[in-house]
Amino acid sequence: KEIEHYAMPMKSIPEALNLRYMVLQNLEEAILKPSKEERAPFLSFVLVGAGPTGVELAGALAELRNHVLNKDYPELMKEEMKVYLVDFLPKVLGSFSDEGSKAAEDFLHKMGVEILLNVKVESFDGKEIKFEGGKSILTKNVIWSAGVMGVVPEGVSKDAIEKDNRIKTDTICRVAGSTNIFAIGDVAAMITEETPKGHPGVAQVAIQMGETTGKNIYRLIKGEPTVPFKYNDKGSLATIGRNKAIADLGKLKFQGFFAWLIWMFVHLISLMGGRNRVIVFINWVASYVTYNGGSRLIIRNFKREELVQKDEQVSKPD
Predict the structure, then answer these.
(1) Is 89 helix (H, G, I), strand (E, B) or coil?
(2) What pLDDT, on a 0 to 100 scale, did the predictor assign at position 306?
(3) Do both 34 and 101 map to the same domain?
(4) pLDDT tens digit string along 137-152?
(5) Does 156 reside within a domain?
(6) Same domain? 56 vs 129
(7) Are 107 and 59 within 8 A, CB to CB?
(8) Second label for 273, Cα 20 to 30 Å away, from 35, 125, 162, 297?
(9) Are strands 136-138 and 166-168 parallel, antiparallel or unpaired?
């Protein structure tokens, strides 16, 4: 609960905006501190979870330090800004191939990211993050990128709840012990011999489960036999920074510039509407040429204390 209060999530647009303003405000605060020791907590960024989210964020923060910090904040030395990527697993991008994982780790090291593997977070009080084994880092910036817990509605039997608060389902996404309730995506745990840990919590799983479940519900209504869900893994992509990405597309595996082009193309065609695609492409070209990701205006004042108080009020019973 302590980590939940003080670490920054980024699963919604308001959370992403809070994260943006927290980063910028702490850089502004660091300017006002007279000593290196006082600036350190504001310039230390710890990302917990070395999956695609953590790796991409670590790369983004490293590029902010390497290409933007001295330009926007000439009073600060980029060597003072530290980016840490932490995971209890022995490698980054655990769901990717060994080649992809190793390449990602090499890219991050070259960008100046400090990687702490086989490390488990013990606590974070808003000022210091502590790890099992005694190591700690003074920081005001802990970003939680280690995944999500399923949100289970009331009425679901506790016997149907699996690890990570996911609901156990059969092969047609029907909740265990029910006849007409279905669960798909992050909240579903379809445990089979082929998937002993369930399916990964990615968008493609939810999309394909939704399509299959919709068809099976129609079949049930008509009294026809259902078809079990089979996940078609279209591959995994992760971008780490300029000209740096990992692409695991079945037997085809790419790292570096070509993987980065694939990542850009896939994300560009996934956008809704031709106008959006053109605008985003132009913005990407401008950012690539100028080493500038756009204006870094602080539109609203983000205060962690207010967010914590709001969470506490919401959690209190009526």
Answers:
(1) coil
(2) 53
(3) yes
(4) 999 989 888 767 777 8
(5) no
(6) yes
(7) yes
(8) 297
(9) unpaired
Q: How many whole angstroms separate alpha carbon 244 and alpha carbon 262?
A: 11
In a domain? residue 232: no
Residues 65 and 172 in one domain: no
In a domain, 316, yes or no: no
Are 189 and 246 contained in the same domain?
no
- What span, in angstroms and rounded, lies between the C-alpha atoms of 190 and 3? 29
Domain count, the chain: 2
Indicate if 169 and 280 belong to the same structural domain. Answer: no
**In the annotation, is 37 catalytic?**
no
311 found inside a domain: no
Q: What is the pLDDT of residues 259-270, one digit of tens each?
A: 999 988 988 888
Q: Model-level pTM?
A: 0.80
Contact 3, 140 (CB under 8 A): no
Structure tokens at 17: 């905006």
- Sort 307 into a burial class: Cβ within 10 Å, 0-12 / 13-18 / 19+: middle
Residues 51 and 131 in one domain: yes
136 in the same domain as 33: yes
114 SS3 class:
strand
DSSP one-letter string for 188-222? EE---SS-TT---SSHHHHHHHHHHHHHHHHHHHH
Per-residue DSSP letter, 9: P
Tokens 């309730």 found at: 181
Residue that is written with structure tokens 């780790």 in the block:
105
38, 56, 79, 105: the catalytic one is 56
Tokens (6 digits) for 159: 């016997």
CA separation for the pair 142, 54 (Å, rounded): 11
Domain that holds residue 40: 2-148+237-305
